[in-house]
Amino acid sequence: MRRTRMTVAATALAGALLAGCGSSDGGGTGREGGSGGSAGAAPVKLAVPPEYDGARGWDQEIDWVSEDADADPVTTDGDTVAYIIRSGNGYVVQARDGATGKVRWTSAPYRTPVIDPDDVNAVQTPRLTTVRQGGRTYIVAWAIGEQPGDALTKSKQVTQITIFAADASGRSVAPLHRVSVPIDARRNQATVRDGGAGLLITWNRTEKHSAVVDMPTGTVRQYDNAGALLPHCSNCWNDSVVAVSPKGPVVTGASGGLDVPGAWSSKDNAPKGLSGEGNGTLVGVRGGMFVAHWRSNDGADAAVWSAHDLQSGRLLASTACDNGTRYDTYSAVMSPNGTYLAFGSVVFDVRSGKALCLAGDTTRRGIEIVALADDGTAYGVTDTETATKPVVELRVSTGSPKALPGGTLAPVATVSGGAVFTRREKGSGLRLSVRKKH
Predict the structure, then answer these.
(1) In the 3-class helix/strand/coil scheme, how is 256-274 assigned residue by residue?
(2) Shortest CA distance to 10 belongs to which of 159, 182, 166?
(3) What is the DSSP letter of 18?
(4) For the segment 38-57, what is each residue's pLDDT rounded down to a tens digit?
(5) Residue whose C-alpha is closest to residue 190's, from 257, 123, 235, 124
(6) What pTM was estimated for this model as a whole?
(7) What is the tens place of the pLDDT at every residue in 231-261?
(8) What CA–CA distance (Å, rounded) separates 162 from 87?
């Protein structure tokens, strides 16, 4: 299975606001200077998995999001949900309690970099990403564009980063930090994502580059020659930083292998029966864990996938699986309580150390997991070529999928007491919905 992504990727899940419950603390109509969103009507009835009530919950419409945008300007960590609404000629971030929908805070308006309409790499909408670092959660608004020059300086391509504390409160909340990171990216060679212990920006021009933004301080550390971090490395010119652990950057080479200099190495943390020498590719980071892909020693078709603790590299669970997911999607999915972790067709129960492979074979379709609940319920879509993919649910403990009725929406995330759904509505933008459990 392959997931289509644009040039610039980010972890973006749907946030929503309370509707139909008499809330008047910010609305979603942009009373903090925002617009481009509306709420307040009773939620529309949705076809959702049977655990949820399709008529009870919260709706939010954001009408400035284009129908063909590849990512939603919203994010959630399972507790706080945040989204972006218009504010004059700029934007506003608003965050709500995931359980009640009550507005926790609304940011001060901010502007994004200038977008060159002829730039094929331009990100046409601002994005949000959730990063947890040092025991605290941060909401990061980001965009890529051009920082105009002046009489003395030239214009330059930048990633603009605006950092908010997820546990902030009040109106017109100022960001903790605002940072512009210069980049020089070729087509399809820039990503912005949760890197673990910080926000990770990577890009490629003549060689690989990366920068890590520290959430508490807003400081930026750039790595233009990641191989220089490794001791006794004679041919590491093409190494790169693919994540950042609490003990330092995670460095990988062109042929694989993972190292946090002075802390841990894939050589010591490979799944049983595999060599970790020059082997191991990091494919996703979530909640202080990462997912890795490994080549089998015997050249078998079924590769090995594993979940690890990011700080120590310790192996948490692994399984052989012919998972056809692209390695560069960085689309790991996690339950809010951190018990379950998934990437493509592989699901890990990191507490029990068990793993489940849902790849297809000659008789069964493959399943891509898109959301995980704290109770071990997984939601996914099958690898049909149809525009609307069938939705399935299963319990991770049993691994037996059940196809849901046609037209059922797959959640994009779960939150306390509910699940988040998103729909693109032709001509009217984006509808975000939270539906409560029965």
Answers:
(1) EEEEECCCEEHHHCCCCCC
(2) 159
(3) -
(4) 444 468 899 999 999 999 98
(5) 123
(6) 0.86
(7) 556 556 667 888 999 999 998 877 678 989 8
(8) 16
